What we know:
The longest helix has 20 residues, at 181-200. The chain starts with a strand and ends with a helix. The protein is elongated and about 75 Å long. The chain has three domains: 20-110, Dna Ligase, domain 1 (2-Layer Sandwich), CATH 3.30.1490; 114-240, ATP-grasp fold, B domain (D-amino Acid Aminotransferase, Chain A, domain 1); 250-396, Succinyl-CoA synthetase domains (Rossmann fold), CATH 3.40.50.261. It is built from 13 helices and 20 strands. The protein is α+β, with helices and mostly antiparallel strands. The structure holds adenosine-5'-diphosphate (ADP) and magnesium ion (MG).
Amino acid sequence: MNIHEYQAKQVLKSFGAPVSDGRVVTRAQEAEAAANALPGPVYVVKAQIHAGGRGKGKFKEPEAGEGGGVRLAKSPAEAAKFAKEMLGATLVTKQTGETGKQVNTIYIENGSDIETELYLSALVDRGTGRIAFIASTEGGMNIEEVAEETPEKIVTVGIDPATGCMPHHARRIAQALGLKGAAAKQCGRLIPALYKAFVEKDASLLEINPLIVTKGGDLLVLDAKMGFDPNALFRHEDILELRDISEEDPMEVKASEYDLSYVKLDGNIGCMVNGAGLAMATMDIIKHYGAEPANFLDVGGGATKEKVTEAFKIITTDPGVKGILVNIFGGIMRCDIIAEGIVAAVKEVGLEDPLVVRLEGTNVEKGKEILANSGLKITPADDLEDAAKKVVEAVQG
Ligand code: ADP
Ligand code: MG
């Protein structure tokens, strides 16, 4: 689960990280007063969407003005003008895709005098199973580009969970960022604070781009992104409250209501599978036969007929889906339950796309019988390979 920049800054501030003073605005009328409450004299008006690249982004609507999603205002009145232009408009950035994202919230922040822009992030390094910091002097820019063109400018510092974050970690990062004097000292406090925030809140990603050194020589978090492990949210009510459903894929929201693991992808073959490992294998074999999966969907071990019905409905309402592959290995999950779910869902929403079903395991005969007697146009498959071939053929003609 991701949160907005202003929320990430609040979280980081509560752990002692230095952030600017700012105000959240959702209605244009509130903007001028919000800016007036800040010290000024420069105000930065920032569109809050769950995507980066806002500064270089463009609004779809001409009324939103020429500027991107991060604008410098020289007075509270100008900040209010920018907020009014951006609110409700659609911002397209490198990360939003062509459709862009509607701006519903604005963050007005005090402007800073920037000396240098640095890059700092923390993530779970799956290779080492540790939290790692990534630091670079090339802040403010697209870090993927830096990684590609000048990888030597990116320094990774892994933290051993047995020791936790130690002073030498912070010193190495300060050095990698080229910090001296007061800023280096502040880095010595910032790194353990970020590590603590990351661990205590079960974050999966923390990205500060840019972390700046001000003209006065102080470190400041100027942009912040945070993502959290969805499986740990049950123990972080404060973080869960920060969820903004309007930023999420509507189908993923629906899936989470039914406790289904669903991730929307760009291909055209919808998959319904039980078990994450089998779902991955199913996606792999679809790719192997030359097509792309439209989603990852794990209905889980002990799904009910209702859950299967909802899962099937989610797949069929995706306009990108041109064919469906159901791949079930019945263990705890019974094949007849899956079959009943499919039949119920098709009765409700209809079925226009080719449907290939591979059932195996507990109650497989009963499941096959239900499907065969349903009168639905279903292509049965004997094994995973056969199923993948059949659905790819059906879609590609
Ligand atoms: P994004 O990464 O989505 O484009 P940022 O918050 O990083 O958004 O802002 C883009 C750029 O705008 C920053 O790299 C920085 O140069 C400038 N900027 C952002 N916030 C401020 C601020 N409070 N004061 C001065 N400049 C800012
Ligand atoms: Mg940024």
